[in-house]
Amino acid sequence: MNFILASGNAHKAEEFGILFKDSNVTVKAAPTKLEVVEDGTTYQENALKKAQAYYEEFKKPVLADDSGINVEALPDELGIFSARFGGEGLTDKQRAELLLEKLLDKEKREAFFTCVLCFYISPEEIYFFEGRMEGEISDSYVGDGGFGYDPVFCPKAFPNKTVAELEEWKNANSHRAKAVESAVKFFKEL
What we know:
Elements: E1 2-5, H1 10-19, E2 26-29, H2 43-58, E3 62-71, H3 92-102, E4 110-122, E5 125-137, E6 153-155, H4 167-173, H5 175-189
Parallel strand pairs: 1-2, 1-3
Antiparallel strand pairs: 3-4, 4-5, 5-6
């Protein structure tokens, strides 16, 4: 099964290539990036919007994802807005540092990453898969690996290390890896 990826994020394309490498699913970057307004109220709605737009443009099966970090102490600030947290023009590092700043006086630091995958084969055949990675926000920005909020997120399995320090572990255990694992199992049986 061949899909184009509805994203302009080079890190995601690379990560999906690794995650699907031993399966019957191949994912390639779309020929060009489309600007899709992500105004849905859930990860599912935003993933579907991206998938539909890319399918209509390229007339090929599409894999779209929407993902983000959900922070218990800031329930309405991140989630589907994670990539826009703090406003336009901030780098990933600036967003992560802003998150640390906002949590300075907070005791509750629980958080989880969510990933929803939308496989849009045709308007009549659409599948969704979800994955989560539980943990908490660290006290400081640590690590060079990964991207986004990885340098400030400690998974439950490693409470004293950030995901940015655990790249190999992340490839097998992230929210995206869990969603992909469900999708691979499903498509193998299809």
